[in-house]
Write a sequence for this structure.
């Protein structure tokens, strides 16, 4: 069974935004496991992205949130993990659509390009939106089939 825990990590550039999101999760009573640095010394984001993504892929967390300067590096790394559908989101429409249409299970945010108020709106929408299935299921199945043929 998949945990209802959210796994969250950032690199050094995303610490402040990660802390804001963690505060939001606490206020909402959402269980989470936090990774990432506590000090703003440079760290390598791929290992953090892999840690969170593997937790989601194994079912130890039902969703993951990753934060770096732009969100691009984290999203690229996360999507290397089998079974992960990480979406880099910078607006509320995409936050909704990526859950409803793509069943994204990891959210990437850019701390240097998305302000904290908008980031919290994105997280809220992304966590609350359910996957619609239907016509979208066929497309996700095509992605999963391709992913399963890769070595």
């Amino acid at each position: 069974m998949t945990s209802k825990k959210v796994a969250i990590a950032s690199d050094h550039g995303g610490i402040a935004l990660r802390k804001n999101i963690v505060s939001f999760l606490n206020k909402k009573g959402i269980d989470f496991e936090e990774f990432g640095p506590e000090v703003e010394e440079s760290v390598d984001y791929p290992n953090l992205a892999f840690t969170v993504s593997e937790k989601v892929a194994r079912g130890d967390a039902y969703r993951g949130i990753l934060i770096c300067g732009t969100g691009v590096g984290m999203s690229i790394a996360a999507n290397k993990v089998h079974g992960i559908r990480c979406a880099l989101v910078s607006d509320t429409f995409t936050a909704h659509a990526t859950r409803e249409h793509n069943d994204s299970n990891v959210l990437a945010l850019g701390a240097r390009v998305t302000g904290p108020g908008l980031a919290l709106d994105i997280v809220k929408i992304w966590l609350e939106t359910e996957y619609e299935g239907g016509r979208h299921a066929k497309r996700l199945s095509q992605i999963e089939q391709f992913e399963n043929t890769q070595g």
